[in-house]
């Protein structure tokens, strides 16, 4: 077993946990929070009879990482340490697996599913666990899975229904929860403590050692001036104005400035209004306006050609419905302007100055230091792909020896592929990762000597975690932004919120134990009451209408295609239509590809609206248990016709009617009566 040693500041922050107290360890990214948790787990296993340790993470890729790099490495030879993910067969027997293991590392969802499952082999009670470690515990708020688990804990505690596990939380920053005053920031930190039923601890006596171990990078602001002329953006705005005129907006509708997040919010609301009023002209125009607004946002952040390509790709996949005036106008408008848009996008004299500043920022790192290694953070997956292509095509960057790779979330990149990318980065065959927020939290990425944030509008927690990736002495943290732009304003706000977080935590730590416990108890009672009210409200909403009284209409052509009573819930998460007549309403497209595999089902082909040339994406086929081919539908792509009018919802959990569980045996008996007839 590898020798487990702590720095002095780590020994300081684990002391109260070693005495059995619930605590949150607050250390910066790179400060060794996980190593400290392994130490606590080791002592717990050595001293607690029948100890059971469960480590919860909020992202799948952290399960194997925490097992191989930390808990398995230091505890694996003496104790049974098991990683469990959604791909693991062990998840289906989690109750039994917990009995046979000493340490389990899993996503929070797996534990929560087991807590609410009544089957003996799967069910787990909190009393079965003696130490519960929660990684990135600042996510224990609102309706997160962490919050659901800890609300069960708090309820049992308030009712004296023990025993309960000791709690150990880990965070690089509790944040302020969006609060911007000292008083409300303190309230947020207390709420996190109450939700975790824990005090928050940080080093007081060994701060210099921590600062030496985790040096803060030097911050640089790489500021550009506004683009003097923007003919592509102006031309796109002119096209949007023509759509406004065609649409003949109602007087009570006010759309804010094109090319902003505010405009995007306005057209989203406009599309919802169109659905509620059965106004397809409004719906379709709003959807196209959003695409043009996206192109303006891309034009502001990336290359002009990226903005043009986003529109080109959208219209390449858009076919007008037969004889529909609105569709013909919108597609015709793009086709009439496509040649001019392409010409403007390729006029490099008007290129985005931010891209030039980003290029010089990267060259500074690689020209002056050949073994540089860093991360370029950006907000959207689309931005990652565009920046990657730009680096590959940029002669100056290639000449400087830049070897880039993309790093995006598990839903869009195989976990195996993620691991290979990080390994290549560690060994030096790659020297820059272009990443979304996945690289901010938790991932075991080699220490970098620079971090660049580009086109990001994130909170203070994400900013601190990104900054913490630049851990090498004399490392650099660069923000590339336009003077007076949104990114620069957000960075300044985050700097203020980071200081506010420190002051809020200090205030909480200064409270005497009696006052702290009293306040925590008060917040817990309040949060429990609010959660009960929210659960009741959600339950009332789900039973607002009978399923048979709700009709599903294609969100594009508005044809009524299904009833709410046709929908069933598979394995607590997949909504499928079991009505055999539904297959007449859709056609199948290309294979639907997921970046992971599942034990009981696999995706089939995409399903598209079959009404004329509508082709609205409705979801995809689901091959269940190798027998059932079920259409799994996305509620967002349908309008719901209810007794009170037509509405839309983002997610199935917001649907205003109950959905029955899928009965596989009954389905098979109905679909294959001749085969299953045993008489």
What does this entry look like structurally?
The strands form 5 sheets. The protein has a 7-stranded parallel β-sheet. The radius of gyration is 27 Å and the shape is globular. The chain is built from 22 helices and 24 strands. With 679 residues, the protein is an alpha/beta fold. α2 packs across α3 (61-75). It folds into 4 domains: 8-212, P-loop containing nucleotide triphosphate hydrolases (Rossmann fold, 3-Layer(aba) Sandwich); 216-226 and 352-502, Rossmann fold, CATH 3.40.50; 231-349, Up-down Bundle (phosphoenolpyruvate carboxylase, domain 3); 547-676, Beta Complex (Metal Binding Protein, Guanine Nucleotide Exchange Factor, Chain A), CATH 2.170.150. A hairpin with a 2-residue loop joins β22 (638-642) and β23 (645-647).
Mean pLDDT: 91
Overall number of structural domains: 4
CATH homologous superfamily heading of the largest domain? P-loop containing nucleotide triphosphate hydrolases
Shape: globular
SSE topology sketch:
Elements: H1 8-18, E1 23-26, H2 33-47, E2 53-57, H3 61-75, E3 81-84, H4 94-100, E4 103-107, H5 108-115, E5 131-134, H6 145-158, E6 166-171, H7 182-196, E7 199-201, H8 207-213, E8 218-224, H9 231-247, H10 261-276, H11 280-301, H12 304-316, H13 325-345, H14 353-368, E9 374-377, H15 381-393, H16 395-399, E10 404-407, H17 415-427, E11 432-435, E12 450-454, H18 460-467, E13 476-482, H19 486-510, H20 513-542, E14 551-554, E15 560-563, E16 567-570, E17 574-577, E18 586-591, E19 601-609, E20 617-624, E21 628-633, E22 638-642, E23 645-647, E24 660-661, H21 664-671, H22 673-676
Parallel strand pairs: 1-6, 1-7, 2-4, 2-5, 3-4, 5-6, 8-13, 9-11, 9-12, 10-11, 12-13, 16-24
Antiparallel strand pairs: 14-15, 14-22, 16-17, 18-19, 19-20, 20-21, 22-23
Helix pairs in contact: 1-2, 2-3, 5-6, 7-19, 7-20, 9-11, 9-13, 10-11, 11-12, 12-13, 18-19
């Amino acid at each position: 077993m590898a020798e487990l040693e702590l720095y002095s500041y780590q020994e300081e922050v684990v002391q109260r946990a070693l005495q059995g107290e619930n605590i949150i360890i607050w250390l910066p990214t790179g400060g060794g929070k996980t190593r400290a948790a392994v130490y606590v787990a080791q002592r717990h296993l050595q001293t607690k009879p029948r100890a059971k340790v469960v480590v919860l993470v909020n992202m799948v890729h952290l399960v194997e990482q925490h097992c191989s790099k930390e808990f398995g490495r230091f505890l694996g030879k003496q104790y049974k340490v098991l990683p469990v993910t959604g791909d693991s067969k062990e998840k289906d027997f989690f109750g039994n697996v917990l009995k046979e293991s000493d340490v389990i590392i899993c996503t929070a969802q797996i534990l929560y599913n087991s807590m609410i499952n009544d089957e003996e082999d799967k069910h787990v009670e909190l009393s079965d666990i003696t130490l519960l470690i929660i990684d990135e515990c600042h996510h224990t708020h609102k309706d997160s899975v962490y919050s659901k688990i800890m609300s069960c804990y708090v309820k049992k505690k308030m009712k004296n229904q023990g025993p309960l596990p000791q709690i150990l939380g880990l965070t690089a920053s509790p944040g302020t929860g969006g609060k911007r005053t000292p008083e409300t920031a303190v309230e947020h930190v207390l709420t996190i403590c109450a939700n975790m039923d824990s005090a928050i601890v940080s080093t007081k006596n060994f701060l210099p050692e921590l600062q030496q171990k985790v040096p803060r990078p030097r911050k640089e602001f790489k500021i550009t001036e506004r683009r003097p002329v923007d003919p592509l953006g102006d031309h796109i705005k002119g096209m949007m104005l023509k759509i406004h005129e065609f649409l003949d907006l109602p007087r009570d509708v006010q759309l804010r400035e094109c090319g902003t997040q505010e405009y995007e919010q306005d057209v989203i609301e406009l599309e919802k209004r169109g659905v509620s009023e059965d106004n397809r002209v409004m719906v379709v125009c709003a959807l196209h306006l959003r695409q043009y607004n996206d192109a303006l946002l891309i034009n502001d952040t990336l290359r002009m050609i990226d903005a043009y390509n986003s529109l080109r790709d959208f219209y390449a996949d858009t076919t007008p419905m037969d004889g529909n005036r609105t569709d013909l106008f919108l597609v015709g408008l793009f086709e009439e302007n496509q040649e001019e848009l392409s010409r403007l996008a390729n006029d490099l004299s008007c290129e985005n100055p931010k891209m030039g500043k980003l290029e010089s920022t990267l060259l500074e790192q690689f020209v002056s230091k050949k073994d540089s290694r860093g991360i370029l953070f950006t907000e959207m997956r689309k931005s990652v792909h565009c920046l990657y292509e730009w680096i590959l095509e940029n002669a100056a960057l290639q000449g400087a020896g830049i070897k880039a790779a993309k790093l995006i979330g598990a839903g869009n990149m195989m976990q195996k592929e993620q691991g290979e990318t990080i390994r290549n980065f560690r060994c030096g065959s790659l020297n820059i990762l272009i990443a979304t927020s996945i690289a901010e939290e938790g991932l075991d990425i080699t220490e970098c000597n620079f971090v660049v944030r580009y086109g990001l509008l994130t909170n203070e927690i994400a900013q601190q975690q990104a900054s913490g990736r630049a851990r090498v002495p004399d490392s650099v943290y660069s923000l590339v932004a336009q003077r007076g732009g949104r990114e620069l304003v957000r960075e300044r706000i985050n700097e203020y919120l980071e200081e506010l977080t420190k002051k809020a935590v200090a205030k909480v730590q200064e409270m005497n134990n009696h006052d702290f416990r009293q306040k925590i108890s008060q917040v817990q009672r309040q949060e429990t009451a609010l959660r009960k009210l929210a659960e009741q409200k959600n339950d009332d909403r789900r039973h607002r209408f009978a399923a048979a009284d709700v009709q599903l209409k294609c969100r594009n052509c508005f044809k009524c295609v299904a009833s709410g009573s046709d929908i069933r819930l598979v394995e607590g998460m997949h909504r499928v239509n079991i009505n055999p007549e539904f297959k007449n309403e859709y056609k199948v497209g290309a294979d639907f590809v997921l970046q992971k595999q599942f034990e009981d089902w696999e995706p089939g082909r995409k399903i598209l609206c079959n009404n004329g040339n509508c082709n609205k994406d409705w979801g995809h086929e689901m091959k269940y248990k190798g027998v059932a081919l079920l259409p799994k539908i996305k509620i967002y792509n349908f309008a719901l016709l209810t007794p009170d009018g037509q509405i839309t919802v983002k997610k199935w959990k917001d649907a205003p009617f109950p959905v029955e569980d899928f009965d596989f045996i009954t389905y098979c008996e109905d679909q294959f009566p001749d085969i299953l007839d045993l008489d």
